[in-house]
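Re: weekly structure request thread

Next one in the queue (81 aa):
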Amino acid sequence: MAYSDHHKRSIAKTIGYLALVVASDYIVTLIITRQYGLSFSITFFSNLVSAIIYFIHERAWNKIHWGKTKIEIDIKDVTPF
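Done, posted below.
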């Protein structure tokens, strides 16, 4: 039985990662530029492009089976919610 990440999972991971990176990027650019508007613009556009690239990268790696292990699960062992 093969498993792969659903697109929704990749989107959720992308958003979580993006939140951390946006905060750190904004702080760094604010320290360097000392300008709120410029820091916001740099952070916004840089991270928009980065999020798109990350999502594409994540989906591409999902198609690569190297390093994945197939796990067989017996349906009798699964506890219903």
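Residues 7-65 form one domain. The two ends are 22 Å apart (CA to CA).
Next request, please.
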